[in-house]
Known about the structure:
By secondary structure, the chain is an alpha+beta fold.
Amino acid sequence: xxxxxxxxxxxxxxxxxxxxxxxxxxxxxxxxxxxxxxxxxxxxxxxxxxxxxxxxxxxxxxxxxxxxxxxxxxxxxxxxxxxxxxxxxxxxxxxxxxxxxxxxxxxxxxxxxxxxxxxxxxxxxxxxxxxxxxxxxxxxxxxxxxxxxxxxxxxxxxxxxxxxxxxxxxxxxxxxxxxxxxxxxxxxxxxxxxxxxxxxxxxxxxxxxxxxxxxxxxxxxxxxxxxxxxxxxxxxxxxxxxxxxxxxxxxxxxxxxxxxxxxxxxxxxxxxxxxxxxxxxxxxxxxxxxxxxxxxxxxxxxxxxxxxxxxxxxxxxxxxxxxxxxxxxxxxxxxxxxxxxxxxxxxxxxxxxxxxxxxxxxxxxxxxxxxxxxxxxxxxxxxxxxxxxxxxxxxxxxxxxxxxxxxxxxxxxxxxxxxxxxxxxxxxxxxxxxxxxxxxxxxxxxxxxxxxxxxxxxxxxxxxxxxxxxxxxxxxxxxxxxxxxxxxxxxxxxxxxxxxxxxxxxxxxxxxxxxxxxxxxxxxxxxxxxxxxxxxxxxxxxxxxxxxxxxxxxxxxxxxxxxxxxxxxxxxxxxxxxxxxxxxxxxxxxxxx
Length: 593
């Protein structure tokens, strides 16, 4: 039985090169994949690269006490993700925290400011007919009807572009450059104009007065309370601008505020005619044929197309401003185009004084729909690129200092064995770097400051595994064994200790990752990853390398600089494998044979 066992042991000792070749192939393959993917550096979090972190808290709305649930929170995260991606902001993160918080991390870069504005916008969109409208100046009083040069003042114009209201706008066009800009290049029946006809064209208003004959609210006829709210509404006050129509049901008339350029207007609006969820697609395009500039083209679904055709047909029979359509986004009027004829076919466009950013922002929110919940900003943290660079430099410096201290200790205490430990640490560092670089584009892993801390802690965990193995080998040598048998006999005992230690570390990292959110998860993830890599490196690199070096005279002969000198370990030669010569006389003791 002894001979076969010795043969198996010899075979196991004779093939350490296979394990070394395997880990070498893995390193080469992962490194090649890293360069092939084009991501040669780990993706940095906003605390290292710079950016903004926003904490949004869901709030209950009147009549919806149970709206805050996991389904709605997950839906909100998905919509926010699509909004940010639709703006072209790369590597943004949106994730839930607890049962009612959403964390949005937006790295610095193109369109990052627009993304910050959109992530928490509920984007509840409605199309409501305009019943009354009145422009208000800085003091809340109606503005004059016109300004010098024939350009209408905000009180007479319903467009951010003052010149857009000069003259009457008809399907046949106008000699006025401003009016031709709204009619040339397309049929008026196919578009909503983000302006209304001037009062002089309809004869329905007088300068300095409200732009409506003040009818009763549709659906709330005789509602004196709503008329009183409209009369008292002052949209120049910030407190009223976003909350004037809050809580209004789709089937009810309401009041709202809207801004044309720098001038606020107040609106009395009828019940919802078309829901924004019935917009199938919206996109921002630039008008290359006419002079309308940037526009938002909309395509309705079948249900919305029918409703839109019906309501636009009704509006054509009315005078300004009751032939206008208010586009209400989160209780605020963002546009109020007028209609000249019924719009059929399920397609329409909003044109006016849009710039590219405004058009893309509105189209983005129309395309991806409304959030199922309302949110408030609990906190906004901005990290500059300079501060992020300082934090990264500090983290790398701390890691370098920790690594240098570990290497100094290993060289001082283990001498030649420190070469094995340092080589193992280098292999572990290479694997960690390459895998982190690959995880960025695959699972959107971002290296933040806590993750750097986890990598620093892992240096000690990895070095501890080497120390355990080296001490087991030394124990075997102290018992009188030579190096090669000591390496093999020490491995099973050291292996159990390393596995138990790494299992405890990995379990702690897993629990921390599950029960925490945000940046702390970065620490837990990095700690768990490096713990797994520690097992791989010890099994496939450290132990096979130790087996190979044990065959070298420098280590096997117990050189005083090898770290395995029997004298320094308290062992007096000869070692157990050396036979003592038999005495010239006397019987041989069987125990010594």
